[in-house]
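Pipeline run #58 for the internal structure catalog. This entry was flagged by the ingest filter as a single-chain record with no existing model, so it goes straight to prediction. Upstream metadata was stripped on purpose; only the residue string is passed forward. Reviewer on rotation: M.T. Logging verbosity set to normal.
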Amino acid sequence: MISFRSILSYKAKYFEAATWLLALFLLAINNPTSHAHFSLCLLHNLDMGFCPGCGLGRSISWLFRGEIIKSIHSHPLGIPTMIILTHRIYTLLNNRY
């Protein structure tokens, strides 16, 4: 018998995978040279001077274009973030886990 909890965890797993895939797709089609973009960053929207995550999305966008040096210059954690997100999506979609 299938429990409500197992159905909920099944849906949550695929919802998370779809969310990460959508985020990566949007970063792939994003123009990293554009300065006119909407930011979800709370520190950026509050006009704080420093944000440790600034440039991470731009770094991943450069990575999708094959510009590894520009990716590293935008944010040094862009490549590790891409590896971690790819692994997370794989483990969510792989039925053995």
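catalog note: Residues 16-30+53-97 form one domain.
catalog note: The first helix runs from residue 4 to 29.
status: ready for reviewer M.T.
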